[in-house]
Amino acid sequence: MASLNTLFYLGVCLSAGILTSADENLPKVQNVRWVSVDFTTVLHWTTTTSDYRYTVMYTGNEDFWSESFHCHQMSETACDLSTDLTMNSTYNVQIKTVPVPEDDLEYDDELDKFPHSYSPPFNPFKDTNISAVNFTVQAVDERRVNVTITEPLSGVHKGDKQLSLRDIFKSELKYKISYYKFGSTGKRDIISDSSTAEVSELNAGQSYCFMVAVLIHTRPKSTQLGAWSAQKCLPGDEMSLGAWVGAVVVLLTFVVVVAMVTVLCCKCCRQKNPSQSSTPI
Ligand SMILES: *[C@@H]1O[C@H](CO)[C@@H](O)[C@H](O)[C@H]1NC(C)=O
Ligand SMILES: *[C@@H]1O[C@H](CO)[C@@H](O)[C@H](O)[C@H]1NC(C)=O
Ligand SMILES: *[C@@H]1O[C@H](CO)[C@@H](O)[C@H](O)[C@H]1NC(C)=O
Ligand SMILES: *[C@@H]1O[C@H](CO)[C@@H](O)[C@H](O)[C@H]1NC(C)=O
């Protein structure tokens, strides 16, 4: 049966002509994979030879394929599709292997006859990774701090404006703030709708550490949470300065007390000694 199929396809190839069979021998690209952070989305692939060029085509929910303008008969093995994949839909991409163009020859009319590999499906709204955010912590009083998060930007531009993740996810974008008492393992979390949040009911005089990550509940579990930021602790440097001042005050007090005790003792001694020394020998 298999050999019958082979014979059949061999027959088809032969009858279709030698040119077509040569095109079908172009190697397909391999290991097609996405790398996407904050909507900057790059498709990577590998190839065994550098003898060919690649043309990238994509489709969202449409029933046609669009060509990516900047990934056209290219020799690189990566294509930045950030400006092409802008909708909240699942995209499929094909990478066509085409011959190196000679004399500005374009293959657009005959793209169908070149072999292609497919990417895994990709939806930037669901699948792009979200990077760590930047934030500051400020003490409000002994038991409350303010956490202020820098609104994270995306790799998407609309006209001149670089869109923030808030512009894209709107009210779906939240922040998870995780904090713990310095030196303890118990963590507590709060979810904030906005980029400024107050954390209250802290123990006065205790040091706390904070971390922040973007949280989008409407995304799949594996991408709901962005990368965690580096932690920031409060009181930070002010505390160690305070501790130093405290230590110096304690030391000074100790010195003063020792000095006073010494002085008092000497007075006592002198009051006793004159009576002794006044005794004639
Ligand atoms: C997102 O990050 C994870 C973990 O680092 C990685 O395995 C995955 O490939 C990344 N996805 C994209 C689309 O970059
Ligand atoms: C975070 O913000 C601080 C203060 O605004 C700044 O000095 C620092 O460079 C920022 N870090 C990052 C990774 O953006
Ligand atoms: C803390 O945040 C609140 C509201 O978010 C604001 O009114 C207040 O001024 C902030 N305090 C400090 C010390 O930043
Ligand atoms: C993207 O589409 C999904 C499914 O329709 C929807 O649940 C989600 O809210 C959309 N996200 C954004 C940011 O538009």
UniProtKB/TrEMBL annotation:
Pfam annotation, one family: Tissue_fac
An annotated GO cellular component: plasma membrane
Main location: membrane
Cellular localization per UniProt: Membrane
GO MF assignments: cytokine receptor activity
Topology versus the membrane: Single-pass type I membrane protein
SUPFAM superfamilies in UniProt: Fibronectin type III
Keywords from the UniProt entry: Blood coagulation, Disulfide bond, Glycoprotein, Hemostasis, Lipoprotein, Membrane, Palmitate, Signal, Transmembrane, Transmembrane helix
Family: Belongs to the tissue factor family.
Biological role: Initiates blood coagulation by forming a complex with circulating factor VII or VIIa. The [TF:VIIa] complex activates factors IX or X by specific limited proteolysis. TF plays a role in normal hemostasis by initiating the cell-surface assembly and propagation of the coagulation protease cascade.
Name of the protein in question: Tissue factor
Native species: Liparis tanakae (Tanaka's snailfish)
Gene that produces this protein: F3_1
